[in-house]
Each structure stands twice: as C-alpha cells, then as structure tokens.
Amino acid sequence: MLERRRSGQVGQSPIAKLEQLPAVVLLDRIRVPALAVGEDGGVLFVNSSFADMLGHTVETLRSLTVREIFLNVPSSKDGLVSAIRERDEHIVELTHADGWIVRAKMSKSALLRTD
C-alpha cells in the first residue's frame, strides 16, 4: 500500500506537491500575505491575504507572473533570484487590480531552493 502511494506522486507539478503539505493549509489561513514563486517567475502559491491586498482573486494571481505583480523587477532570472536573496527586508511596489501602487514590506524568503 505504501508503494502505491509513492507511485501515485510521480509526475506531480510543484503546486500539486505544495498543496498536499499541511503548511500550505496554514499559510492560506494566516492573515499575513504569502507568495511562492517558481524559478520561471510564475506564481506557485498565493494566499487569500495577498490576494486581498492587491484586489485580485487567488485564481487570478496564480495566472500571473512576478513581473506582472511587482514593479521594477530585474529583467533576468538571475537578477530576480539575487534580488530576493540579497535583501533582508525591503519595501516593494506591487500593482493593485485597480491600477494603483501598493507598497509593502517584504521579508527575506523563508525558504529558497538552491537549484
């Protein structure tokens, strides 16, 4: 039976794997905006607090990229990754659904893949 569960997880997308973790349930319930971004700049996870802050639905934000949400994002993937890694805390500018700018304090990523 254990072997069957393992084989059922082969080929899952990163978000499918994340959604099975208890931490995702917690992140979705807390009132602190949370966002997980893939290596390609696509949104892997966003909680309802983040969506509320920007006037979007969670589903809409999942269809966007970092460059469509954040203003002044480095154009290269390496620039984006280094910008996230190098800052402990900083003010970021995000685009609200109504077109105005939302300024928020972003902390350094809690988890960051090395690959």
Summarize the structure in short.
This protein is an alpha+beta fold and 115 residues long. It is built from 7 helices and 4 strands; from the N terminus they run αααββααααββ.
Query: Rounded to an integer, what's the Rg over CA atoms?
Result: 15 Å
Question: What's the number of helices?
Answer: 7
In what order do the strands lie side by side in the largest sheet?
A: 1-2
Largest sheet: 2 strands, antiparallel
Q: Given the C-alpha coordinates, what overall shape results?
A: globular
Q: Quickly give the structural class.
A: alpha+beta
Spell out the blueprint of helices and strands.
Blueprint: H1 2-8, H2 14-19, H3 22-29, E1 35-37, E2 43-46, H4 48-54, H5 58-62, H6 66-69, H7 77-86, E3 89-95, E4 101-107
Antiparallel strand pairs: 1-2, 3-4
Describe the structure in your own words.
The protein has 115 residues and is α+β, with helices and mostly antiparallel strands. It contains seven helices and four strands. The strands form two sheets. A two-stranded antiparallel ribbon has the order 1-2. A hairpin with a 5-residue loop joins strand 3 and strand 4 (101-107). The longest helix has 10 residues, at 77-86. The chain starts with a helix and ends in an 8-residue tail after the last strand. The relative contact order is 0.11.
